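Write out the 3D structure for:
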Amino acid sequence: MMRILDVGESAILAEFEDQGTVLAHFRALDDSRPPGVREVIPAARTILVRFDHGATSRDRVAKWVRTTEPAAAVAEDAPEEVRIAVRYDGPDLEDVAELTGLGVDGVVAAHTGTPWTVAFCGFAPGFGYLTGGAPDLHVPRRATPRTSVPAGTVALGGEFTGIYPRSSPGGWQLIGTTDEPIWDAGRTPPALLRPGVVVRFAPVSTY
């Protein structure tokens, strides 16, 4: 079920029941923007649609959102896929191994064994919230966040995995590091991890 709310004069917010539905609708909407729609921004359970109030109307945009069929757009094109080499050397790796009962090798196997998908971005420019990995890796965030997490750190938090694009505070469980530039202002687009992108992780030794 979808609910649409007004957000000022030039935006609407579509609310959904789950994250998978958000991602499917985002792919469809982002691929079929009508004239006047400026941005389609997904989050955990919502999609914000910003439009040019002078070029279209709220009713027109809301009708487009309601009537766009997600499955058709997803089926047309394969999503972009990136591979990221990871050194599984994070300070919380052993804690995660204990929390999950998988052991260190099991955590690495679970993290690399299935593809992840960028559901939405937030927290910092280029920080993607990746979902769809092994359920065994769902772990709580740390009780006390760190004041500084280095750029390139691979982490787990709740149902998500992510990579810190730059040094910043953070409360996720740190399991590894990568040299892949997650955010590069000189690249187009600057963010490597964007909503809809599929990510496959691989240990450095076997990459």
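Residues 6 and 12 are 5 Å apart (CA to CA).
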